[in-house]
């Protein structure tokens, strides 16, 4: 059933929805808002805060006036109450002149700024006092949009979809719903789109976050039960040749890297299957630790495979590994296996892997496809482990006779949460950065700094360096003022000289297109990359020295730190500029933590402390472990509840065969299958 069954949606509008990944009325139920406008009670003018979006009730001092400034028509009025005055301005809205009369009492809602010592609001919304009273504490959903499709149009379509589609069946047992006081699934989904107030939203969001975290915990615990204490056919000893190579590197390993190598070697030589997470801050040098483990396997006469989430990252890993081997004159062969290999290249790679000619194999998910057969696969390493489902990792492991498994992640997660998230693994942590890397210099600025930031970026480009600009959205949104990649790139093309090459990157592009753009950036065919957060986990571009993050207050601190990790990947001094468009007391306090620290684990701990349940940062386009609604920093308490409940459910019914768990068993199988194909 297509979208045209809904009133007001024709073929052209349906195509616009398709761009958003919405193809049927049922999809609209899952197309949750990106963020919300929260209407709070009016405050006195004297209590306004610059940068905040607030409401004020007052009396117009005199009739509205019309000004002409630089060819633009501006309507201006002054609102006053007992505590002060507020200047109001609107562009190209001459009809307001006859409506806004002296003595009129009304409520205005908008973003507060100041000019010459007086609070101002540009383009505020106008309300009758009684009408605004009804809106207090309500939330207005704001959806991700595409050009030609307004927020109002999406909201109307969602409303119709709930009338036309029955929605998903409940699958949680009544005991869990009652224990955690959660609403029914369809009710929670409806409330996510149409919350009556903040409490309504928090309850709906908790239900959906709980679902994701419960399924995740069930999958982890079942996996742990299946893999604990398994004997290994591969006893991999520490190799003196690997030690010699590490000792001859042009830099010294950090204490954290040395300890991680020691722990990995202890596991691989224990006669039991290693299942270890290597967790290291961005730029901490996890890759050389992984290479050391691969070399130990190769010197022991076995094969090792490294799986990366994208082709370009796999290619980069393969090149680094080949360079390392050639520099040290080792007799090992590296095979690269990705989906875009030509038929002859793929055939040769498969032959080398099967015969054992290739001891070291690097690739994408292509590594575990059916026709890939290994000679003696003793070690499997996955980079950015949360990008691969549990089943994907297991499929690759199944290519060998219970090989050792090492997974790597740069996601900084507080210890209290990592114990729950990585309970099926032993954890090694690298917290220092290599000594040859300079600390990133950070700055938190407001919009007035933009032109200086552009000049600074251009100066770096003239030095032969490259830069990123990060925007939270792909396209314009008609409801919230947030920078988007599409329009921002057009603006920068007018700001920078023609000889500066610009590129655009976002999540709506096909994987091949994203890889092609990142490849051009890596080869320095692009000087300035305007992107969404899809670069959060990406390739190593040592020549990139500047990152500018627009609307930085919209992101969690841990995610901003992940983004910042895209620069500072070499000995060059690097910089990160966080543009705080809200510049409120709260946003300044949060972002100052990034200015004062480059330690991802410390920042993650601070992020956890600063967030409260139900905080709406909004506009999450990616995040740790790729949850859709849940956020491990915001939902730490829910994660703990889900872990306890998963333990109890599996203790009472390990195979989920009881009638009350039938729906949960089916939903878990769907969840595992979906994560396996992420």
Gist?
It contains 23 helices and 22 strands. Helix 8 crosses helix 22 and helix 9 runs antiparallel to helix 11.
Structure description:
The chain has 23 helices and 22 strands. By secondary structure, the chain is an alpha/beta fold. Helix 14 links the parallel strand 14 and strand 15 (404-409). Residues 612-624 have low confidence and may be disordered.
Helix share, percent:
25-40%
Q: What is the CA-based Rg, rounded?
A: 27 Å
Structural class: alpha/beta
Strand fraction equals 15-25%
Largest sheet features? 7 strands, parallel
Gap from first CA to last CA: 26 Å
Side-by-side strand order of the widest sheet: 12-13-11-14-15-10-16
How many helices does DSSP assign?
Answer: 23
Rough outline: globular
Count the strands? 22
What are the low-pLDDT stretches, counting only 5+ consecutive residues below 50?
A: 612-624
- Mean of residue pLDDT? 88
What key phrases describe this protein's structure?
single chain, 678 residues, alpha/beta, 7-stranded parallel β-sheet, 6-stranded parallel β-sheet, 23 helices, 39% helix, 18% strand, globular
């Amino acid at each position: 059933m297509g979208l045209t069954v809904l009133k007001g949606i024709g073929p052209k509008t349906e195509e616009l929805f398709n761009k958003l990944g919405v193809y049927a009325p049922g999809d609209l139920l899952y197309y949750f808002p990106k963020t919300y406008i929260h209407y709070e009670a009016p405050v006195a003018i004297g209590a306004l805060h610059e940068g905040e979006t607030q409401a004020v009730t007052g009396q117009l001092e005199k009739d509205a006036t019309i000004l002409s400034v630089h060819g633009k028509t501006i309507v201006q009025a002054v609102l006053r109450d007992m505590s002060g005055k507020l200047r109001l301005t609107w562009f190209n809205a001459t009809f307001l002149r006859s409506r806004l009369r002296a003595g009129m009492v009304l409520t205005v809602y908008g973003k507060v700024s100041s000019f010459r010592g007086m609070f101002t609001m540009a383009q505020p919304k106008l309300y009758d006092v009684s009408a605004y009273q009804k809106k207090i504490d309500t939330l207005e959903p704001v959806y991700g949009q595409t050009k030609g499709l307004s927020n109002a149009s999406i909201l109307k379509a969602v409303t119709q979809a709930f009338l036309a589609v029955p929605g998903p069946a409940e699958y949680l047992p009544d005991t869990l719903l009652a224990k955690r006081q959660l609403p029914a699934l369809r009710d929670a989904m409806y409330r996510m789109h149409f919350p009556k107030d903040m409490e309504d939203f928090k309850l709906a969001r908790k239900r959906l976050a709980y679902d994701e975290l419960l399924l995740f915990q069930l999958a982890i615990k079942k996996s742990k039960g299946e893999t604990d204490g398994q004997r290994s056919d591969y006893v991999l000893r520490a190799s003196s040749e690997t030690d010699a190579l590490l000792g001859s590197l042009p830099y010294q390993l950090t204490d954290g890297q040395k300890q991680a190598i020691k722990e990995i070697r202890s596991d691989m030589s224990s006669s039991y299957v290693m299942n270890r997470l290597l967790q290291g801050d961005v730029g901490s040098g996890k890759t050389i630790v992984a290479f050391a483990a691969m070399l130990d396997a190769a010197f022991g006469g076995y094969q090792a495979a490294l799986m990366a989430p994208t082709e370009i990252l796999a290619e980069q890993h393969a090149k680094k590994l080949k360079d390392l081997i050639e520099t040290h004159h080792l007799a090992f062969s590296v095979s690269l296996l990705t989906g875009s290999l030509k038929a002859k290249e793929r055939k040769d790679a498969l032959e080398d892997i099967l015969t054992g000619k290739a001891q070291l194999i690097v690739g994408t998910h292509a590594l575990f496809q059916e026709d890939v057969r290994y000679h003696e696969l003793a070690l499997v390493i996955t980079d950015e482990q949360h990008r691969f489902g549990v089943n994907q990792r297991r499929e690759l492991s199944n290519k060998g006779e219970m090989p050792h498994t090492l997974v790597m992640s740069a996601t900084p997660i507080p210890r209290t949460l990592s114990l729950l998230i990585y309970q099926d693994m032993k954890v090694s942590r690298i917290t220092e950065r290599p000594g040859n890397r300079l600390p990133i210099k950070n700055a938190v600025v407001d919009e007035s700094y933009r032109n200086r930031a552009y000049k600074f970026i251009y100066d770096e480009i003239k030095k032969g360096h490259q830069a990123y600009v990060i925007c939270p959205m792909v396209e314009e949104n008609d409801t919230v003022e947030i920078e988007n990649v599409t329009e921002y790139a057009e603006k920068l093309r007018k700001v920078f000289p023609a000889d500066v090459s610009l590129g655009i990157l976002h999540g709506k592009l096909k994987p091949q297109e994203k890889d092609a753009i990142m490849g051009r950036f890596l080869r320095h065919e692009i000087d300035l990359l305007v992107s969404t957060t899809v670069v959060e986990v990406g390739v190593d571009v040592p020549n990139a020295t500047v990152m500018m993050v627009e609307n930085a207050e919209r992101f969690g601190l841990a995610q901003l730190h992940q983004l910042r990790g895209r620069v500072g990947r070499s000995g060059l001094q690097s910089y990160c500029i966080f543009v705080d468009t809200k510049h409120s007391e709260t946003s300044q306090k949060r972002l100052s933590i990034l200015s004062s620290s480059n330690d991802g684990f410390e920042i993650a701990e601070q992020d956890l402390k600063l967030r409260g349940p139900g905080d709406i940062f909004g506009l999450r386009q990616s995040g740790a472990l790729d949850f859709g609604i849940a956020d491990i920093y915001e939902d730490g308490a829910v994660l703990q509840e889900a872990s306890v409940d998963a333990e109890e459910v599996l203790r009472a019914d390990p195979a989920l065969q009881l009638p009350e768990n039938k729906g949960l068993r089916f939903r878990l199988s769907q969840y595992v299958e979906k994560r396996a194909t992420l």
